[in-house]
Design brief:
heterodimer, A: alpha/beta, OB fold (Dihydrolipoamide Acetyltransferase, E2P), 5-stranded parallel β-sheet, 9 helices, B: mainly alpha, elongated
Chain lengths: 411, 59
Amino acid sequence: MADADLSQQLDTELESDDIVTVEALNDEIAAAIEDLDNLNHDYIVGDVSSCREANGHIHFDLEYGSASIHCVLFGFRRGWSTVEPESEMQVAVQGELSYYEAQGSCSILVTDVVDMGESDYSQTYAENKQLLDNDGLLDDERKQSLPELPATIGIVTSADSDARVDAVTALYSRYPDVDIKIQHASVQGPNALEELMSGVATLDEDATVDVIIVTRGGGADKTLRVFNETPICRVIANTDTPTAVGIGHEDDRTLADEVADHRFMTPTHAGEIVPERAALEQEIEQLSTMLDTAYQTTIVNQLTAHATALDNAYQSTVKARLQELGASLDHAAERHIEADLLSLESRLETAYQALQQEKEHEEELEETVEEVRDEAETEAQAKIEATQRRYRLVIAGLILLVLILAGLYIL
Amino acid sequence: MTQETPISDKVDRIETIVERLENGDVSLEEAEELHEEGQTVLKELQEDLDVGDGTVIEQ
């Protein structure tokens, strides 16, 4: 209903009754292609380019000269042919021509692939690489180190491209303070080589630029080939300023990547040219903490060691002094005791001698007493004996008297 | 150390200072000198981070 209204409106405005929409035209093209038998050939020959796998299907461009057509080998057909297409191969493909109405593009739905050898461009690529290698431009030894923290970064890229936006965004996401100089250059097409070379040379002459980035986004292999040309590779290789190159997608490799001082995969990866400011600040903060901690620990350890040494020295001094005083005391005590002992010994000797004398005197007295006693005893004995003799005489006289008396009595 | 000295060299110098302090074979005077040197290098490092104004110049 809406299409009918639009058609009626356009008929009126454009004064024509032969007006169609894109959708209708593409449907007509698709029907025309399918009806044309002379577009169906046994094989189509060309070089494989931009070969990639998606959802099990292999997509690639078949190129020859300046022409190319998209091909797809569906997953369920991959086992049908003896070889699978790869970049840098020249192949003959068999398949059906198909028109994709939604995008208005033609593709070959491949049913068979025949390997025809190396592609023409792969030979050109190999020759260019050999030339650069012969001049030593691929040697790792000649590569310069990138600055740790560039203040100004020069970028050679298409000014209105997604690659420019991605690269600047990636750089600022990691380090917002760097200055960026954009040198516009076509990255494909007839002017690309000259503009790329001019852009790199201009930035190399700018003394404020610390590193030069050359980048572009992904595209068909054919559109990236300018970065395999030896003139741009030589300019990139011979700059005084360090260079970093990131062309296409992750798996795209060009000779410009090879000669550059640093290769990054895509414009989004351009940020790796600069460090992360937040990480640097964190590292500095950690270093500051480590420095303060180490310093404080050192001071505490040193002061503790000094205090311990002071205590040890004090205790050693006190101990030595006490030992010295102890020794003096012992010595004095010994001398005092010795003097006392000598005095006592002297007194003992004197006393002993006095005692000895007393003993001798006593002995003398005892002898005297003994002598006196003996004399007295002798004298007493003599007296007794004399008395006894008298008594005996008396007794004998008495007995005699008795006897006389008794005799007398008897008588 | 100067503004031209690479950041990595300055970081290495601070790490060396920290190692010397941690080893404990320095006097109090040396420790103070090393700490002051480390503080100076840290300040230079902080200043080194301010490289530009973050401007984009189209040429």
